């Protein structure tokens, strides 16, 4: 099958792709898995560097860089005016030499470009949003910083796609609230690289205190403040926060300074360690060094961090929402607490850190769960079946 994956943002430089976590890493892994199954896969991303090659062959699939928009890294909101041009470029490309049998848009900008490109054809469109502006706005409130046109354009996009891929059951509910029929939404969670993320391997150095690890972005929506405030109930532990800018730039980062102030006010400043951004291919060593990984984001469309931690044999304590609630089985692979319940979070962490046998059992169950249900092979297999289904629906009936 010929598959076109559209991600309208520019990808990271080739030399850092393996060290980068995000939408592009997801798209790249899906492309590689599908290519390995014998499909003809092409990935389309915006070209933001005039020195980058227009095409590349990577792990069996082809990357085509679309020369549309500014030749620089560009905020999402500034890309919206370029979507029609991007769609026309794709239409011309697919008319000239190679046409996909199915198009899969990623993130809302990529989906808009994909839907625009095939508007007058019978090529079906599958869409993965990765996150939804309406849900982010509801959970983050004034901390939401997405472009103003995102929410209405995502709503319009739901009317233009044949099938939406949700990454959690909670996202299914959100998409149906936006007007999609339940039959037009399927849950296909992202996979985990079980070779990179495994219990065996190096671990980052630590002192004798129990270690709690929080990983992800460094902004108010990721809930690190809740963890800091919960430490008063946990005791003498170390909280490592990974994410944000490189460690050398944390002093100039507003959220990093705010979290340190909260720690000072709470009396736990000596228990907090901010390490800044960590390359994705080094995160496994941080997971293995922790007794517990905490996931307290106020919005989590997918459960990437808990899954990676579980694959390393580390139990997870997290808020019961979104992808976290789907991936963590309460009292089997970790513990779930109601979102925003700082006291419950602290009590749960204290009890779990004091229960060595329980953590050991959770860690073993976590590894089994990931290897049985969350490999990239399973993700690719599910997408393969989905593509076959939408293509068969769009094929014209025999005369």
Automatic annotation (TrEMBL):
InterPro entries: Glyco_trans_1, Glyco_trans_4-like_N, Glycosyltransferase_grp1. Keywords: Glycosyltransferase, Transferase. Pfam families: Glyco_transf_4 (PF13439), Glycos_transf_1 (PF00534). The lineage of its organism: Bacteria, Bacillati, Actinomycetota, Actinomycetes, Micromonosporales. This is Glycosyltransferase. GO terms for molecular function: glycosyltransferase activity. PANTHER family: SULFOQUINOVOSYL TRANSFERASE SQD2. It comes from the Bacteria. It is an enzyme of class 2 (transferase). Its EC number is 2.4.-.-. Residues 22-195 form the Glycosyltransferase subfamily 4-like N-terminal domain. It comes from Plantactinospora solaniradicis. The keyword Amino-acid biosynthesis does not apply. Residues 207-359 form the Glycosyl transferase family domain. The keyword Secreted does not apply.
């Amino acid at each position: 099958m010929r598959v076109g994956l559209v991600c309208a943002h520019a990808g990271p430089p080739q030399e850092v792709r393996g060290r980068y976590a995000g939408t592009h890493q997801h798209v790249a892994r899906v492309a590689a898995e599908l290519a390995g199954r014998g499909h003809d896969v092409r990935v389309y991303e915006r070209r933001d560097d005039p020195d980058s090659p227009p095409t590349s062959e990577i792990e069996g699939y082809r990357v085509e860089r679309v020369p549309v928009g500014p030749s620089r890294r560009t905020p999402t909101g500034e890309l919206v005016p370029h979507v029609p041009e991007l769609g026309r470029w794709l239409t011309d490309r697919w008319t000239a030499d190679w046409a996909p049998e199915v198009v899969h848009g990623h993130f809302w900008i990529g989906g808009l470009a994909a839907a625009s490109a095939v508007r007058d054809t019978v090529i079906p469109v599958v869409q993965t949003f990765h996150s939804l502006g309406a849900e982010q706005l509801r959970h983050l409130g004034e901390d939401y910083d997405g472009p103003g046109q995102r929410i209405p354009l995502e709503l319009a996009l739901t009317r233009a796609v044949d099938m939406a891929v949700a990454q959690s059951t909670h996202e299914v509910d959100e998409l149906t609230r936006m007007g999609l029929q339940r039959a037009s939404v399927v849950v296909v969670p992202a996979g985990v690289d079980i070779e990179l993320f495994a219990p065996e391997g190096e671990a980052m150095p630590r002192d004798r205190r129990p270690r709690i690890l929080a990983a992800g972005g460094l902004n108010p929506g990721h809930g690190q403040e809740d963890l800091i405030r919960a430490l008063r109930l946990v005791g003498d532990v170390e909280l490592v926060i990974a994410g944000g800018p490189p460690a050398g730039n944390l002093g100039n980062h507003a959220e990093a300074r705010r979290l340190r102030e909260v720690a000072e006010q709470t009396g736990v400043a000596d228990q907090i360690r901010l390490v800044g951004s960590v390359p994705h291919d080094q995160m496994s060593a941080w997971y293995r060094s922790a007794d517990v990984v905490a996931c307290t984001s106020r919005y989590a469309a997918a459960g990437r961090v808990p899954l990676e931690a579980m694959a390393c044999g580390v139990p997870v304590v997290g808020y019961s929402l979104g992808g976290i609630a789907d991936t963590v089985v309460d009292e089997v692979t970790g513990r779930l607490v109601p979102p925003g319940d700082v006291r419950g979070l602290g009590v749960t962490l204290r009890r779990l850190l004091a229960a060595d046998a329980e953590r050991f059992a959770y860690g073993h169950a976590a590894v089994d769960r990931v290897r049985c249900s969350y490999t990239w092979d399973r993700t690719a297999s599910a997408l393969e079946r989905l593509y076959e289904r939408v293509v068969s629906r769009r094929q014209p009936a025999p005369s």
